[in-house]
C-alpha cells in the first residue's frame, strides 16, 4: 500500500479500526487471519489504500451491520471532497483533522465558528478583524487591523486550513447548514496564498 490518505479515507480507516476493536480482534491477530503484515493493517486503518473496495473485503467478518454502509463509503474513499450536515459526521471529521494536522489556520474575520472553538491552541491560529470577539485563551489570534484597508481575503468565504503531515492539506468551509471539506488543488492554492498574504501585516495578540 502506497500513497497518501484523503479525508474520506482517514474516516473509513477509523471505522475499520473501530469495527475490528469492537469484535475483540487485535492488529496482530487480524493480520495473521487475513495473511497481511502488521504494517498493511495499520496503514489501511490510517486511511491508506491502493484499492479500497478490494482491501475492504478482508474486514467483512468484523463489520457486522456496518458492512453495506462501509461498502458505499469505500466507493468514494478516494474522492477529494466531502459535504456533510452539522452533526456526528462533521464532529468526527473535525476530531480526526484536529488530532492529525501539523498546523491549523482559520480565516475567521467575524469570529470563530463554534464547532472550531476546541482545536489545539498550540497548533491553531485565527485571523480575525480588529473588532471581532474571540476568546484569546483558546487560540492564537492574529488581528487584521482596520488600517490595513483592503486586505487579502476580502473576496474569500471564511475557511479553515488544516496542514497535514502525510497528505495534501484539507480546507473546511463552514456554511450555515453544512460543512464542505476539500482537498482539491484550486482550494488548497487559494488557502495557501491567502494565509501567506495575511501573515505580512497582521498583528499578534494574546498568545496563550
UniProtKB/TrEMBL annotation:
<dbReference type="GO" id="GO:0003677">
    <property type="term" value="F:DNA binding"/>
</dbReference>
<dbReference type="InterPro" id="IPR010982">
    <property type="entry name" value="Lambda_DNA-bd_dom_sf"/>
</dbReference>
<feature type="domain" description="DUF5753">
    <location>
        <begin position="133"/>
        <end position="200"/>
    </location>
</feature>
<dbReference type="Pfam" id="PF13560">
    <property type="entry name" value="HTH_31"/>
</dbReference>
<dbReference type="InterPro" id="IPR043917">
    <property type="entry name" value="DUF5753"/>
</dbReference>
<dbReference type="Pfam" id="PF19054">
    <property type="entry name" value="DUF5753"/>
</dbReference>
<protein>
    <submittedName>
        <fullName>Helix-turn-helix protein</fullName>
    </submittedName>
</protein>
